[in-house]
Amino acid sequence: MTNTILSWRKFTAQQEEKIKALAPDYKLISSLEEADNLEDIEVVYGWNSEEGNKLSMIQQIRSNGYRWLLLE
User: What is the CA radius of gyration of the chain?
Assistant: First the structure.
């Protein structure tokens, strides 16, 4: 299992460095294709409606689930 942070919004270099310092065991990715396993994604930053639909399917089978904040 690879703990993963998925960001659909671009981090600045400074933000990325800070995240890596605070969560060194986490892999930072910017698309679902980069994930070793979708179930490894623990944090999602931003939103992508096409990829988000794929991710919501995983929510239904993951035991601890995701926390969603829907913005409209």
Answer: 12
Pick the closest to residue 37 from 27, 45, 25 (CA basis). Answer: 27
* 68 in any annotated domain: no
- pLDDT tens per residue, range 28-61: 999 888 988 888 888 888 777 777 777 665 554 4
> In Å, how far from its chain's centre is CA 18?
16
Residue 33 lies in a domain: yes
Q: How many CA atoms lie within 13 A of 9 on its CB side?
A: 8
pTM above 0.85, yes or no: no
Q: Rounded distance, CA 67 to CA 42, Å?
A: 10
